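ok here's ABC transporter ATP-binding protein, seq below lol
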Amino acid sequence: MEKSLARYIWKNTRLQQLWILAVVAASMIPYFLSFDLPKQIVNGPIQGDGFEGPGATQKFMHIAYDIPLIGHVEFFQGVELNRFQMLMALSLVFLALVVLNGLFKFYINTYKGRLGERMLRRIRFELIDRVLRFPPAHFKRVKSAEIATMIKDEVEPMGGFTGDAFVSPALLGGQAITALAFIIVQNFWLGMIAAGIVGVQAVVIPRMRKRLLELGRQRQLTARELSGRVGEIVEGIGTIHGNDTSNLERADIAWRLGRIFSIRYDLYQWKFLVKFINNFLAQVTPFLFYAIGGYLALQGRLDIGQLVAVISAYKDLPGPLKELIDWDQMRQDVQVKYQQVYEQFNVEPLIDSRIQELATAPVGTLTSALVVTNLTLSDDSGARLVDHVSVEIKPNETVAIVGPNGSGAEAFAEALGRMIWPDSGRITIDGRDLLELPESITGRRISYASADTFFFHGTLASNLLYGLKHAPMIDAVYDEKEAQEYKWHSAEAVKAGNPTLDLNSDWVDYKAAGANGPDDLLKAIRPVLDAVQISQDILDLALRSNVNTDVHVAVSDHVVALRASLRDRLRDEGLDGIVVPFDFDAYNAQATVGENLLFGTMKRPLMTNRRLAAHPYFQQLFRETGLSTDLYAMGLEIAENAVELFHDLPPDHPFFQQLTFMTADDIPTYQALLQKLQSRRFEDATPEERSAIIRLSFAYIEPRHRFGLLTNELMDKIVSARKQFHAHIPADLAELIERYDAERFTPSASLMDNVLFGRIAYQQADASDRIRAIMGELFDALDLYDDVLSIGLEFDVGSGGKRLTMVQRQKLNLARALLKRSDYFVFNRPLSALDQRVQDQITRNIIEDLHKEGQRPAIIWVLSNARLAEMFDRILLFDRGGLAEAGNYPELSEKNGMFKELLS
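and the structure came out like this:
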């Protein structure tokens, strides 16, 4: 990595810098002419110099030069103009020069901006590229938030400086020298005064700003450390809550913020002191010009035109000079930042870039043995994890690795998966060091999975298929406009040193997964999902999800048939009462009061409970039907019963799980509200109080809560109000509320609700599990299982996969590794979160599934249960970092050794 920012910029942008410097040089000509023109206007047409006689004229734009060896050459004779015409002509030339200088500045600034953005893009990409090539051990010593902050924020000024690195000193310095030279030409002594002040500013101000640079460096470091600390708090929030250390973290953050405040306050004080001195020096010069220049003009040693031109020229001198001083400060500041970036990202040894080169061609199978020779591994503290282990693992061989925690078995598996680099010794395949093999080979032909999981924010499918996205496999299809845009982006990527890989292409290697394309991919991966027992989890996610009818047409088209099949199946099994179907003419006792009243679903987020309650039509319906007073009275009784039953219970009591209308935190609020409303009628309560009470009744379910509040009369009244609601519903509400229809799919409802078209009876034990099992069989019978599974695969796993349980994450991680159908599988206790029985079953499934139809990849598995080693060809027993025993199951189980002790 280049240590000097200036050299880095010049190396990558020298051709562009040379071009813009040439433009800057050209811009100095009209810039100088704009200084001289005011003098010509004042002395010529305004004061009459050269127009002494009546009708006198002068030549305008007379262009002639005395050229050595050639003599006098006249390029243009000029145009004869009188005094007024000359005034107008010179004024128009002045205006033209102003426009021309402005256009030069516009072009230069635009070019600088584009150049800076390209360089910023290049720097960020190269830093991320280096992160992808960091050795694995380095990630244990850095905080991800600090790295992200440096790439996102701290390199931002470097992009802006790129355009100014060479152009600004040339442009600003050229403008300042041009103005200063013009002043000297007009009057030597005034020029010397201006030069003296400029010299003081150029020497004193940069020296004073060294303190600013140091404070800026401290501010950058403390801000980065704060970012890293905040990242730690977010990642370790469970540990903080579990150990009651939130106030310790508050104290730590407050101290850090205080430190940043102190640095920034000193920075502001020093910054404005420097600004005050700089402004003072800039304003002293005009005072001297007015005093000394005026004195010289009074003596006749300086004409008025020259004095006006000098003052006008000096007016343009402080600006470039100040900006030049600011540029020097920015240069030093950015160099300090770049030095910090250099120190943070100049990590050795980096992974060779050739190891990560793109490979679009299929990679051949690994047919050679994995040979481990004298392998030694250590942790960051230097403690030995594995000590001089040598072993050979043949292709198609299954090897069980067993040993107690800390025995070195896990570290050995990590080395095989390239998660740890050896201190000494080698791991080779066909004589080639594992670390020197391209990732296009190891990342496709060797699969590694451990208990540690990480998933990127996105769908479950995108994370499941992540191990198959090695290179663009199918080009994206663009229309003409999109193709032009893509071409432009590609050209810009090349100029910024970025790759032109198209993210919109299809990157999934379907053949590697055993599929021909996206259409049959699900059939190829379903055996893997079944093997790791995650299919039911994905099915449950699908049942809780809404269905995109434009994508999953088959499911939405068959939902009516599914409802009928479900009813028939329940009747055949004598489970008619397990689901109470929706009936527009009857009250569904298993649904909430609100669901019964609405008899449909709202299109969220366009419509919510709060918006519906505030709608004039809904409020009018409540008034006309009298439901307001009925549900208010019902809500009061619910509040009284809940407060009486639960006010003495702790917030974490399991009884609160039965309350759908109130939380433990709401109990004190409603307790106070009941005391306030005890002797007040419905009309006396405020709208907010009525809403708070009526809200309780909307979530009430009689079979679940059993307060005995729903009478037949009230249920009939709710059904009647429901009919009235839908009979006269306004168009704006009708668009946002989908009424239940037994013959139609409801997109705004979940798949489970669509198939049930009713509610599960609360009195039935394990009803939900039984329904899910039956639904799974029905999906299979109607050939819809894969379609439903694809709905579940669209589930958003959240940041780091945290919307999934730990068990689901480990299953998904294992499935992702299996999908690659590699030659070597390394499993490092990948299912530690599961109970032993399920671990054993999944292990057997994988061994049986991977070794069928002539396929027999090598499997290396660090087992939690030593008894499962019976399924493997060979067993490696680790103890205290060494290979204690090796052999097959019959040999080691009969031998009175350590393995026999693990079995007992």
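fwiw The CA atoms of residues 688 and 750 lie 32 Å apart. kinda neat tbh
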